[in-house]
Design a protein that fits this description.
Blueprint: E1 11-15, E2 21-25, H1 55-58, H2 66-86, H3 93-108, H4 112-150
Antiparallel strand pairs: 1-2
Length: 156
């Protein structure tokens, strides 16, 4: 069973002991919109697989009528379209997710240690500037005090 496009290294095929085949993906699929591997879920088993330990949990309820399934599908599609519409200014859900991935990659380029070092340097500069400001105010206050004590005839 071939899954995904040839460039997708995350899709793989596994054989069970009884000879059946199931498709599985790692926890992150390739996210390519053209890759078939996105349609598969990790650990999908066929209906008569003897390898599934909890077969009842894997098999879907088939008593649901096709009209109900169609209704559920229409509600799901309508909800997705509404979400996609809300992200319309950003280009839709796919573009929002691409932006998220881009921001995540860019943020990963800066370490917390680097940010902490820069913050400490900024704080040190601010402390130095505050000390300089305090000292200049003291000089100003001394100058005002000496000018007031010198009287009207002194040159300053």
């Amino acid at each position: 069973m071939a899954l995904g496009h040839p460039a997708c290294s995350r899709a793989r095929t596994t054989m069970h002991d009884d000879g059946c085949t199931f498709a599985t993906l790692s926890t992150m699929d390739c996210r390519s919109p053209h890759c078939g591997c996105r349609a598969f879920l990790a650990g999908r088993w066929h209906l008569d697989c003897k390898c599934a330990k909890f077969r009842e949990a894997v098999v879907q309820n088939v008593e649901i009528g096709s009209a109900e399934v169609r209704g559920q599908l229409e509600r799901i599609l309508a909800a997705y379209e509404e979400i996609d519409r809300r992200f319309g200014q950003a280009g839709g859900v796919a573009n929002v997710l691409a932006l998220y991935e881009q921001i995540r990659r860019e943020l990963a380029r800066v370490s917390y240690d680097e940010l902490d070092r820069m913050t400490q340097e900024i704080k040190a500069v601010i402390d130095a500037l505050l000390k300089m400001d305090y000292e200049l105010r003291k000089v100003n206050n001394l100058k005002v005090a000496f000018d007031a004590g010198a009287g009207p005839g002194s040159a300053g």
